[in-house]
Design brief:
This protein is mainly beta. About 5% of the residues lie in helices and about 50% in strands. The protein is built from 2 helices and 24 strands. It starts with 5 loop residues before the first strand and ends in a 7-residue tail after the last helix.
Length: about 290
């Protein structure tokens, strides 16, 4: 096996609020929406925040999406979803919501009413995954992936645990249905552990560190940073210098033009203009 080279360690900007429910850091920073991270587009991480009890759930009201997928991983708290395709659901700690916007829809995300009334800690990550040109107008789809359906793999020598949300790790196959080959692994490592993760030659790979600290190829990586690897090589070896929570994101690059504007991701500016027009004309449905 040969290690994928580190291209860069991405320094992330200060956090900002999305709506009034999610204080997030954009972990891909200036690399968002670039082919170096294809098929991924962006990743927001909402570190743990304590919310007071409230009868009005915090969150984000109705807004459109088109041309890609959102993947929401909940670590603490509960989130309720509703969209114009008729889907709705609630996810809690360990659960994942994989929403395909495809041809376009409106949706909203709020802390659940029950959790809001109790108050408490909320933390989660949301990943955007691009769709290939051929699937930009796929029908909207919603996958509720509950914690109990996600395979958990005990890593060798007590190194920690890996949850396979999408793709395959060893004999464990993730439950998410994807349009192109994608690996999304949710990993917890214990301090001092060293592991080698196999990844396909030619695939892009990104390793966001949500909490804790790692050392890779002699480089120290702290929390809220992301390691971008090159396409050559078929593995990465990492050592946890503190108890760590991280994601491993790998995938086959689309290598197609990326045009984006707010919540729309297409291949050309003409397609972006059409998406905006479709939204304004109500073609993405109503909530």
């Amino acid at each position: 096996m040969s290690s994928k080279p580190i291209l860069t360690i991405i320094e992330t900007p200060s956090p900002h609020w999305v709506g009034d429910g999610f204080l997030v850091r954009p972990l891909f920073a200036e690399y968002a929406f670039r082919n170096e991270i294809s098929p991924f587009l962006m990743l927001d991480y909402a570190a743990p925040v304590e919310f007071p009890p409230s009868d009005t759930p915090p969150g984000v009201g109705g807004h459109p999406h088109k041309g890609f997928e959102t993947v929401t991983i909940v670590y603490n708290g509960e989130v309720e979803h509703r969209d114009s395709a008729g889907n709705s659901g609630k996810i809690g700690p360990g659960d994942v919501q994989w929403m395909t916007a495809g041809s376009g829809l409106l949706h909203e995300e709020f802390h659940s009413r029950e959790a809001s009334k109790r108050g408490g800690v909320v933390s989660m990550a949301q990943l955007w995954v691009n769709l290939p040109k051929r699937d930009k107008n796929a029908p909207p789809r919603y996958q509720t992936i509950l914690d109990g359906t996600i395979p958990r793999v005990a890593l060798p020598e007590g190194a920690g645990e890996l949850r396979v949300i999408a793709g395959r790790y060893g004999d464990a196959q993730g439950p998410a249905s994807t349009f192109t080959p994608v690996d999304v692994w949710d990993i917890r490592l214990t301090k001092g552990a060293t592991i080698t993760l196999p990844l396909p030659e030619g695939h892009n790979a990104i390793l966001p560190v949500l909490e804790g600290a790692l050392r890779i190829d002699g480089k120290d990586i702290g929390p809220s940073k992301a390691v971008l690897f090159g396409r050559k090589g078929d593995c990465v070896t990492i050592t946890a210098t503190a108890d760590a929570q991280l994601l491993l994101l790998g995938g086959e690059p689309l290598d197609e033009p990326i045009a984006h504007y707010g919540p729309f991701v297409m291949n050309t500016q003409d397609e972006i203009r059409q998406a905006i027009d479709d939204f304004r004309r109500g073609k993405m449905g109503v909530l």
